[in-house]
Amino acid sequence: MVLPEHLHSIWALPLDDADYPKRWQAIKSRFTRSLVKEGEALTKNTKGEYDLWQRRYWEHLIRDESDLQRHVDYIHYNPVKHGHVLQVKDWPYSSFHRYIQKGYLNPNWASPVNDDVRSDFGE
Predict the structure, then answer these.
(1) Cα(72)–Cα(1) distance, integer angstroms
(2) Which of 64, 65, 86, 93 has its CA 20 to 30 A from that of 35?
């Protein structure tokens, strides 16, 4: 899920690889290089780094299917939570649309017209 000020992701990593810092560095670096290549006007700070990314991130090891579902729901609902859209289906940069295509969720999931779905997905 990509939002203007942050992003969320869920990864399935190989059993012998949990190097989150290296993976985040690669993602941020590749994304930044692609923006520069496309002509996006980015400025560097006094350390020679682009002020595009925050230095920190939060990781969470998914414990079980229920935990996974809570995190997927939270990520899908995040654009609504931050006021970018009124309904989850209106945010184009989300895996939510794949979930609809696969039949896992209906397009009105967690929307005002679907009162039976909880939309207070804590962090």
Answers:
(1) 10
(2) 86
Distances (CA, A) of 25 to 22, 32, 116: 5, 10, 40
Whole-model pTM: value is: 0.79
Is 104 annotated in the active site? Answer: no
Choose, from 50, 93, 99, 104, the residue flagged as catalytic: 93
Does the pLDDT value for residue 113 go beyond 90?
Answer: no
Task: Give per-residue pLDDT as tens, 39-67.
Answer: 998 988 898 888 888 778 888 889 999 99
Length in residues, the chain: 123
Cα–Cα separations (whole angstroms), residue 18 to 11, 13, 68: 10, 7, 18
